UniProtKB/TrEMBL annotation:
Keywords: ATP-binding, Biotin, Ligase, Magnesium, Metal-binding, Nucleotide-binding. The keyword Ligase applies. Residues 3-447 form the Biotin carboxylation domain. This is Acetyl-CoA carboxylase biotin carboxylase subunit. Pfam families: Biotin_carb_C, Biotin_carb_N, CPSase_L_D2. The keyword ATP-binding applies. Its EC number is 6.3.4.14. GO terms for biological process: malonyl-CoA biosynthetic process. It comes from the Bacteria.
């Protein structure tokens, strides 16, 4: 396959800029597309060329396949990178690109078909011998049948939209009294969000961890995993903070989950970057949740600890290059990402679009800010309000937490309200610092996290952190006599780099 020379990025905001940065480094020309609301957006300024694709609502611009294809032709692009969201997991769009002779930088349409609908994905995974969350593999046709099924498996259950994504059409039900109303609500939400009201049932797992495995495959069936990301800090089933390595994974469990993720990817002849999401229960059993057939929002943490550029790898795979790696690189150190939103936590996280009058972005060693905004920019009210992803690297988890806190304290956004204070509260919370937080963490600690300006809570967090570090150091002192019993100041003169590598094994 010939080398890609010009890429149209069919997206906006930080991810469009992220993709363009790598293209530039590879000597590939970039084309942006933009809606009426994005005339002055940063992704438009970053690209070599920009083409207008329609009115602000994404249904009339970024999601109109023909407009994107026309823009690619007009610009003379030979490939399209979809980013995440929008058309990134649309098999019909992949086929349309192929029909136009454009390279789609992503998996083949057939892999999307196999993984797109949750029920079909579950059936395919069962066939491939991958453990899935217990539940049905078909949408349930009537509320009577649904009730009968729940009587069999017992409460609590999760009603889920077969065509789901973004936490929509999902309802936890705990008692029969609530079943019918939840069923109706899930169905109508699914219809609204996905144009498809098919709903199925999963057993609701109590206090699970969301741990996902990054996979990567070339066009010749070489498939590897690139370790995990812990994404259990969620609000309304949406990730807020991500980190790698997962603080709860043993090397054995990592290897096992990685192997199963590769099996899942191979079963659908996957190509490129993909993510196999799992729920891990209290007994550390893991179950397939879904596969995201695209680059994830949280991919930077994987890049930090592996030293890889996943976008460059995607482009090379699309060009038909063979995968250079034969196995997962051992993760080096620790990385954390926080999602910075234009939203107001004190008003139920209502989006807070508007003009950014002042902006100071954190910097310093091992800090990365993937942002889509600049001072004077007006955050539009028609798109997702995420304005940036702040990620850091450090030799150890404790240092990564301190670095994230330091970077967040440098972050200043004026003119609009952001969730920065909320993110700081998460990073300072004893449960997060302890490292064993499940998907209920943010909901359970809602009040504490919002009241974090309360000096008592900060004091408590500090104290918990000191005690925790002390206990960990004591434990380590027993198992790692040569390390001098600590990670920070008391590491016996051992470099934190060496220590990080040593403690990872
Ligand atoms: P979506 O595709 O809408 O993002 P997912 O299936 O990926 O939905 O699930 C998102 C999150 O919802 C999970 O990370 C988890 O926190 C929660 N969740 C989903 N299914 C279950 C389940 N069966 N039991 C408990 N929590 C679940």
């Amino acid at each position: 396959m010939p080398k890609i020379r010009k890429v149209l990025v069919a997206n906006r905001g930080e991810i469009a800029i992220r993709v363009m940065r790598t293209c530039k480094e590879l000597g590939i020309a970039t084309v942006a597309v933009y809606s009426e609301a994005d005339r002055s957006a940063l992704h438009v300024r970053t690209a070599d060329q920009a083409i207008f694709v329609g009115p602000p609502p994404s249904r009339e611009s970024y999601l109109v396949q023909q407009r994107i294809l026309d823009a690619a032709k007009q610009a003379g692009a030979d490939a399209i990178h979809p980013g995440y969201g929008f058309l990134s997991e649309n098999a019909a769009f992949v086929r349309a690109c192929e029909a136009e002779g454009l390279t789609f930088i992503g998996p083949p349409a057939s892999a999307m078909d196999s993984m797109g609908e949750k029920t079909r994905a579950r059936a395919n995974m069962i066939k491939a011998g991958v453990p899935v969350v217990p539940g049905t593999t078909e949408p349930i046709p009537s509320v009577e049948e649904a009730r009968a099924y729940v009587e069999k498996i017992g409460f609590p259950v999760m009603l889920k939209a077969a065509g789901g994504g973004g936490g929509k059409g999902m309802r936890k039900v705990e008692r029969m009294e609530d079943f019918e109303s939840s069923w109706r609500a899930a169905k109508s939400e699914a219809l609204n969000a996905f144009g498809n009201d098919a709903v199925y049932i999963e057993k609701y797992l109590e206090k699970p961890h969301h741990v996902e495995i990054q996979v990567f495959a070339d066009q010749y069936g070489n498939t590897i995993h690139l370790n995990e990301r812990e994404c259990s800090a969620q609000r309304r089933h949406q990730k807020v903070v991500e980190e790698t390595p997962s603080p709860i994974l043993s090397p054995e469990l990592r290897a096992k989950m990685g192997e199963v993720a590769v099996k899942a990817a191979k079963a659908v002849n996957y190509v490129g970057a993909g993510t196999v999401e799992f729920l891990v229960d209290v007994h550390r059993n893991f179950y397939f949740l879904e596969m995201n057939t695209r680059l994830q929002v949280e991919h930077p943490v994987t890049e930090w600890v592996t030293g890889l550029d996943l976008v460059a790898m995607q482009i090379k795979a699309a060009e038909g290059e063979k995968l250079g790696l034969t196995e997962a690189p051992t993760p080096r150190g620790h990385s954390i990402e926080v999602r910075v939103y234009a939203e107001d936590p004190s008003r139920n996280f209502m989006p807070s679009p508007g003009k950014i009058t002042y902006l100071r972005v954190p910097g310093g060693p091992n800090v990365r800010d993937d942002s889509g905004v600049f001072p004077g920019y007006t955050v539009p009210n028609v798109y997702d309000p995420m304005i940036s992803k702040l990620s850091v690297w450090a030799p150890t988890r404790r240092e990564a937490i301190a670095r994230t806190q330091r970077a967040l304290s440098e972050y200043v956004v004026k003119g609009i309200t952001t969730n920065i204070r909320y993110l700081k509260a998460i990073l300072a919370h004893p449960e997060f610092i302890e490292g064993d937080y499940d998907t209920s963490f943010l909901t359970r600690q809602h009040d504490a996290l919002l009241g974090a300006e309360d000096p008592k809570l900060s004091e408590m967090a500090l104290l918990a952190s000191v005690v925790h570090t002390y206990q960990k150091d004591q434990k380590r002192a027993k198992t790692l006599p040569a390390a001098g019993g600590g990670q920070g100041g008391g590491n016996g003169g051992v470099s934190p780099w060496k220590l990080a590598l040593r403690t990872r094994r």
